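Figure 2 data, in text form.
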Amino acid sequence: MKNSTLENLLSEIGIEYRKEYLEKLERFYFLLTEKNRHMNLTAITEYDEFMRKHFADCLVVLKFQSFSAGQRILDLGTGGGFPGIPLKIFLPETEFVLMDSVRKKLVFLEDVINELALKNISVVHGRAEDLAHSGEYREQFDLVLSRAVSNLSSLSELALPFVKTGGRFISYKGDNGKDELLRADNAISVLGGRVEILNEYVLPGGDRRCLIFINKEKKCPMKYPRKAGTPTREPL
């Protein structure tokens, strides 16, 4: 076990942890890198880099956002389970939904959930453009998180329809977050959101990142999100 690497990272960032959480993260790493031999889940597989760029980066939101057992959280475009699985491990009483359009990734994540004995977490297959128009999901989440690579204008159109009025969307971005935010201002406003704050941070090792906090102040117009592919091709 190489938990000392993760212990050092979390201590440097200032995140509290339990030993059992680190053990589950370690197990998740080995499950994912083994599956990655046959499925494209991550380009990062080297242990120390994975701990830093995936686990530490996913968990840094714990410094800026308060979480509670009563919240319902959506990880939009979860892919290999980021940030949803690491956060679920650290927030065992909080409900998580992992959403992605690639079914085989979700099948893998179901195996991870069972292997790690995680409770109060589920996966949902489908495109955000479709699922956001379902009454089961539209404006049903206190918090939506995404580490998706889409530009913030497109991502806001996909994410904000899932957020309850009074809830929040948090987008994980790189050091270009400020530029993306300037271009997304119109989309955020149209979709009922308002930018709360941009939290910049530096990962151990020097990588610059930011978390963009967008509060949902009013209902999203029913025409959004537009049909599949349109938010990406034609950002608001």
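Caption note: The domain at 3-233 is CATH 3.40.50.150 (Rossmann fold).
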